[in-house]
Amino acid sequence: MKAFAGCLLLCSLAHAGVYKWVDEAGNTHYSDAPPLQGQSRGVAELNKQGAVSKPAESEAQRRAREASAAESAQRKRQALEASRHDQALAQSYPTLADLQADRERQLAVLQSAYRALELRDQGLALQQRQLRQDIERSRANRQPPPAAAVRDQQALGQSQRELQRQMAAKRAELDDFRRKMRQDLDRYRQLNP
User: Fold this and answer.
1) Domain residue limits, the chain
2) For the sheet containing 18-22, what is the strand order?
3) How far apart are CA 100 and CA 173, in angstroms?
4) Region labeled Disordered — which residues (predicted)?
5) CA-to-CA distance for 174 and 67, rounded, in angstroms?
6) 18: buried, middle or exposed (CB in 10 Å: 19+, 13-18, 0-12)?
7) 65 CB neighbour count, 10 Å cutoff
8) Three-class DSSP category at 52
9) Which of 27, 74, 101, 160 is 20 to 30 Å apart from 117, CA to CA?
């Protein structure tokens, strides 16, 4: 019977990839598909002749291999992106002065947007100060503050917090752009000595 099972196994090997693994109980299994759950001792892939074409690897070995492959792929993507960026710099700007002028124009646009946010913040602070004075005046006259003034003050406070968040994001964007601008200028100098 074992000879017949071995013969069947060899016949099935000739038609498709076969996987061999040992389960937790120590039993050896053969299948045309890998097990659904990873085995602690690993899964070996057999070729058509029944020889091991891909040795068994444990779950930890598989994870390490996959992490290494992902890291390698990431490095390749970064190298390709850097190459494309270098090519775009070289083709888009005939001189360093052209690149610098373009980046300074872009920086001026970002700075203008930040300045607009600053002016909006100053306007909100002025409105907030006026509302506070109105509320204090009402209290000094021993009257309850107008409900609309209290409501407006709360809305202005919320607007100011949102505006502060936008300003922080715009400052970060400006810092990032300045950093990239310096990198582009340095890289252009390296590409065109």
Assistant:
1) 2-56, 58-92, 95-191
2) 28-31, 18-22, 43-46, 52-54
3) 18
4) 46-87, 137-193
5) 34
6) buried
7) 11
8) strand
9) 101
Q: In sequence order, which ranges of the chain are alpha helices (DSSP H)?
A: 2-15, 59-92, 96-140, 147-191
Kindly report, residue by residue over 144-158, the tens digit of the pLDDT: 888 888 898 899 999
Spatial CA neighbour of 191 closest among 79, 88, 102: 88
**Identity at 156, one-letter amino acid code:** L
The pLDDT tens digits of the residues spanning 45-103 come to 767 776 766 666 667 777 888 899 999 999 999 999 999 999 998 899 999 999 999 99
C-alpha distances out from residue 185 to 132, 173, 177, 188, Å: 49, 18, 12, 5
* E strand or H helix that includes residue 31: strand 28-31
The span from the CA of 26 to the CA of 12, in Å, is 23
Which residue in 103, 112, 90 sits closest to 180, CA to CA?
Answer: 103
